[in-house]
Amino acid sequence: xxxxxxxxxxxxxxxxxxxxxxxxxxxxxxxxxxxxxxxxxxxxxxxxxxxxxxxxxxxxxxxxxxxxxxxxxxxxxxxxxxxxxxxxxxxxxxxxxxxxxxxxxxxxxxxxxxxxxxxxxxxxxxxxxxxxxxxxxxxxxxxxxxxxxxxxxxxxxxxxxxxxxxxxxxxxxxxxxxxxxxxxxxxxxxxxxxxxxxxxxxxxxxx
Amino acid sequence: xxxxxxxxxxxxxxxxxxxxxxxxxxxxxxxxxxxxxxxxxxxxxxxxxxxxxxxxxxxxxxxxxxxxxxxxxxxxxxxxxxxxxxxxxxxxxxxxxxxxxxxxxxxxxxxxxxxxxxxxxxxxxxxxxxxxxxxxxxxxxxxxxxxxxxxxxxxxxxxxxxxxxxxxxxxxxxxxxxxxxxxxxxxxxxxxxxxxxxxxxxxxxxx
DNA sequence: TCGATACTCCTAACTATGTTAGATAAGCCT
DNA sequence: AGGCTTATCTAACATAGTTAGGAGTATCGA
Lengths: 207, 207
What we know:
Two copies of one chain form a homodimer. By secondary structure, chain A is mainly α. Chain A folds into two domains: 10-57, Arc Repressor Mutant, subunit A; 67-205, Tetracycline Repressor, domain 2. Helix content of chain A is 71%, strand content 0%. In chain A, helix 4 packs parallel to helix 7 (151-171), helix 4 (89-106) packs across helix 8 (182-206) and helix 7 packs antiparallel against helix 8. The longest helix of chain A is centred in the first third of the chain and has 27 residues, at 6-32. Chain A is elongated. Chain A binds chain B through residues 33, 35-36, 112, 115-120, 152, 155-156, 158-164, 166-167, 170, 177-178, 180-181, 184-185, 187-189, 191-192, 196, and chain B through 33, 35-36, 112, 115-120, 152, 155-156, 158-164, 166-167, 170, 177-178, 180-181, 184-185, 187-189, 191-192, 196. The first copy, chain A, binds a DNA duplex through helix 1.
């Protein structure tokens, strides 16, 4: 069996070190808070000095951006793993909300990075951001599949879902005070949208 | 007419300077972002050097804390100005939600300081925090007045309301894409809770 | 195998940050 | 006038992200 060219070897090693740095960054961020990421500390935990990190990432923000990309990828993967969804629209809605809230609650630092734009100068790169947008589009399609086509209802759904996640993380981290409300919230939303759709249907036929 | 004792004069002047510093801090924070508050810049805009600020606030966090206290006070005052509320529970709900969301949307930096705990080491002092808690208790009383007594429904209401505010600020700052949904959201919540209360009532009487 | 090249990591240093220590000058009180 | 308080300053410290430039090591072409 032939060995790979050494160029590739080096490239692989480079990528491996990048991954190691990112793992250490996640650990630090989970322990100390998202904004408390220190390049010197980070470098030390992977056996380097701070300037050496610049061989792998061109700035601290680039590290955040790579973490953002990882986070959205995890989100997309977990989202895909949801399928096939229950046939019953209401059950599918519940599953979707529960997935989102539990994904957020599982890692507060990740939630802050992905969904609260809280790092002073940081904005995700266009490439990273596109993944996130596609993911939201998938949610929209999901709702459309249930006959919920009004874009305002999509906005209301995202508000309700992120609101639950937000309150859960802010006011009961590690607990389930708002997670318990998910089924009820889904029912509330579902009944509302179906009623609303019926009303609009009637309004249209009688006009 | 007698002049005030000079001691008081000095104390007044001290408070006036504190207020001036806080005003400048708000301006800077609104322009550059909450986390971008720089003591040197702040000092310069009030005609001082950075260390002089320490005669007025014992740390940067103390400045944030004073701003937090001001923010919650503004919230409480604005909340009081809502009364008397409409008699119709649904209308009152709408007014309450609209008030909260518009208060948040009016000042993104203030929203971040009060409702998203985003500054690395900052937690509001006990004194400041108590005001905020009392304010939430007032919302709870409001709902109780409408016959919404279930604490879970209060949690659901806060999730829905903060969710709308959060989405509005994150995804359409300066616009009204989620603000437009407030009435609809209030109706959804109101119908849901009243239905739920009826169901529970029935459950109890038939048992 | 040798010299050139590329790569990785280092130390030193720059700028900016929040913060502390200590000095200076102005105003107040006795 | 002399002592006390207050407000403000400069100088300096620790820590942050970042840049410059060098040392050592592996890789590659001849």
